[in-house]
Amino acid sequence: MGRMTIDQYRKADKLPLTVVLDNVRSQHNIGAVFRTADAMRIERVVLCGICCCPPNQELHKTALGAEESVEWIYYKDTTEAVKALQAEGYTVYAVEQAHDSMTLEEAAEQCTMHNAQFTIHNAQFTIPPKTAIVLGHEVFGVQQEVVDLCDGCIEIPQYGTKHSMNVSVTAGIVMYRLSGAMRAAEGGKS
Amino acid sequence: MGRMTIDQYRKADKLPLTVVLDNVRSQHNIGAVFRTADAMRIERVVLCGICCCPPNQELHKTALGAEESVEWIYYKDTTEAVKALQAEGYTVYAVEQAHDSMTLEEAAEQCTMHNAQFTIHNAQFTIPPKTAIVLGHEVFGVQQEVVDLCDGCIEIPQYGTKHSMNVSVTAGIVMYRLSGAMRAAEGGKS
Lengths: 190, 190
Prior knowledge:
By secondary structure, chain A is an alpha/beta fold. Chain A is 40% helix and 24% strand. Chain A has helices spanning 6-11, 27-40, 57-63, 66-69, 78-87, 104-113, 144-149, 167-185, and strands at 15-22, 42-48, 72-75, 91-95, 102-103, 116-120, 123-127, 131-136, 152-155. In chain A, strands 3-2-1-8-4-9-5 form a 7-stranded parallel beta sheet, with helices on both faces. A two-stranded antiparallel ribbon of chain A has the order 6-7.
């Protein structure tokens, strides 16, 4: 598959997956999230609170131009961002370890299960559910009031000494897995 | 599941998955790889060429101590590292886009398919195949002579304008997926 130009990218169909960054401190992490969002062709990055916004030189160093292709929007208050997404029909998950969190694999299965099937002019279409994931600050994670607003929590099972990974790595793993589930449901549509 | 101490971690069973870093430039990226390696409890990180080694202050900033829990070794020459792993029975994959690369999902299936089944004292054990993945320099990728030595290439399908993601994000996605396949084959053993 060839590379797309930024114009082609903007016009192309995106997966209905939105990444919300709740007060992520590091410009490098935000840049890396943009780069993964471009690669997975998801629809939008929502920057909240202390997150830096494009244009920004440090962000550009890791985004390498993906901040031009991927749509983004800024909210001062993350709770407003979550409410707006829910009003648009999104299921919003905080990526956090919580008592009732589901694993990423369970979340991917849900994504596939909740696909809507449509038949238009005898052609079958599968529409994945509108999904948003919220990732939090490098040290403090997703704010509790944001977690409380969300429709659930997704957790990546961890087996080590730390119980936390870098936020751009975590975002990348969740984006890969959920976008893969959405694409599989769409029958491999890219 | 509670957090382990570094001592408990060192004594615990690891998945037979090794990550080889072929001349990765950024200390932050190397640190983030250590942190994911700790979380997935894989056995080893192999640092090659210009990669910095612990103890290193910049590396520590992103590894946050995972460089203490995860075993590592240094090779000046990446080809020597790959040859040594192959001599130990590892299948070594470069994470690179190539004509004959398999997708990460195909690689995960292979991991599961090649599990060895053992029965000892009427208890069944499943041993995942020894697997190593090689990730390359931020700009130049894995060296061609290293790719040529490897047993195959693994590629993460990408749909955007860039066709490359941050190396620590890429490493994280591949570690998550392959270690997940190994754990599923082991029947959820953590």
